[in-house]
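Subject: Interface between my chains keeps coming out wrong

I've been trying for a while to get a sensible model of this assembly. When I model each chain on its own everything looks fine, but I need the whole thing in one frame so I can look at the contacts. Pasting all components below, labels as-is. Any help appreciated, I'm running out of ideas.
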Amino acid sequence: MTATPTAAAPFTTVIGLEVHVQLQTRTKLFCGCSTTFGAPPNTHVCPTCLGLPGSLPVMNRTAFELAVRAALALGCKIAPFTKWDRKNYFYPDLPKGYQISQFDLPFSSEGALEVVDPKGALSRNVRITRVHLEEDAGKSMHDEAAGTGDTRIDLNRAGTPLCEIVTEPDLRSPQEARAWLNELKLLLVYLGVSDCNMQEGSLRVDANVNLHIPCDGGRIAKTPIVEIKNMNSFRSVERALVYEVARQYEEWQATKAEMGKTPKQTRGWDDPAGVTRAQRHKEESSDYRYFPEPDLVPVAVSDEWLAATREAMGDPPSVLRQKLAATWKIPAYDADVLVNQGRELVAYFEDLAERVGEGKVASNWMQQDVLRTLNERGGSIDAFPVRPATVADIIGRVAKGDFDTSRAREIFAEVLGSGRTVDEVVASMGIAAVDDDELITLCRELLAENPRVVADVKGGKEQAAAGLIGQAKKKNPNVNPGKVRAMCLDLIRQM
Amino acid sequence: MSLSRNDVAKVGLLARLALSDADLDTMTRELSTIVGFVGQLEQIDTADVAPLAHPLDTQNVFRADVPKPSLTTAEALQSAPRHDGECFLVPAVLGDTGAA
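Reply #2:
Try treating it as a single job with all components included. I did that and got this:
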């Protein structure tokens, strides 16, 4: 099957997402076992998370508070009263035979998160249906090669706190879904809710998608909703959705099957093959036989508690972009680039902008030099060897006229590469400020050698002076082009 | 309210109980009696009664996010019918009936 999306699709794509994020706690949701990733199998387990008889869960306060923080940041209403429920099903990685989750009284609902493209091409308000707090299951490992061999169960992850975020079907394209996920991840990382590391399973996405196809007589046909699982990156989410949209359209053309006439289907994304494949039929919600969890008492959130959580939350990226643009007078595009790199990079920028005193100059340096070299080197901005004070020092010397910007960028690269100070680098590169006497001598020589340019400028073509800059740099690489130009024009006027 | 044989068969499947035809007959009769008995509650007018989330009149019980020692792997696995010293071993999971 070909999965090429049509340029102008004769249908509307309807996508809703279900995102699970692991909360950044030290311990599990209901017991004191560590949540550290990568420990040897079954070393972070205790009677509670193994579901042994007689053990009882006790809620982790930090997990609840982080979940509330996430919900507040997503603009959700926080329920004044919330409880937990048992979701019953049998699976070997679920030792109790039920998952403690939230059914009819989730702690929050009715929020929204907008996906905004600074260029304005992409902007959509995506409503959040609900956010709730539940525990994770363990990990099953199947030996594919052995075929019918045993399945091995590691319960280190069982009982890890998860925040489940469910959106309304408000997304309209695979690209939009990916952009929205990027914004969600940025938000959760900014607020310290989750590290959102997809490789370690800290963020998992399922996508529900179907098509609304206009038919004769103005009727809209809706294709059966498909839930896609097993997507391990945001890129996979986008690819899987692109594939699935094309697949559903082809299937609809062949079968005319509509929603409601067939059960909701679950399909798994096969990344190497680039296709989705049918999985089991989803059990009906009632099959989970939810009932209130008797081992946990409800939680009532007071106004004071909510206010304190809000206070401690910090600015979400959307607010920070506006603040950064307003405070430092930088374009929305610049603020977006900086904020999208994370809180630490924003702190670096603000430190630099404060020292330089000019936001746009600092922003240009961030984007052209700091970010570019940071991306090449890898690692975090906090470990970046050239600190804001040093960058500000280089920028300050440009402003004083010691050297021009292109020279300054060479100096920056050399300081970064060699680990020497700016003074050492300036000395070693033979860069010395050109004093005014030297500059006048140099400009007089230039004018003597270029009578044509002198004539042109006298004739009113000032731009002809630009031809002198290259020659000036050949005579002395340390000259400041702006100063050379101004000096030459002055001298010509005096001639 | 009474239960059909199909209802009981479905509940049996969800509970992973292998019920014979004779079991189904017995279970359908007995469960219908139980559900009928509980069904008497429907005679009470509960329009003004808030649903009870928990029988205890207690709220907001939390613990601090502080790690405690876990069991050793050997302790964790000691009662497992089968293990390989690291993991619990279960028959290969074929029909995927798990949930998200």
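Reply #3:
Confirming on my end. Residues 1-6 of chain A have pLDDT under 50 and may be disordered.
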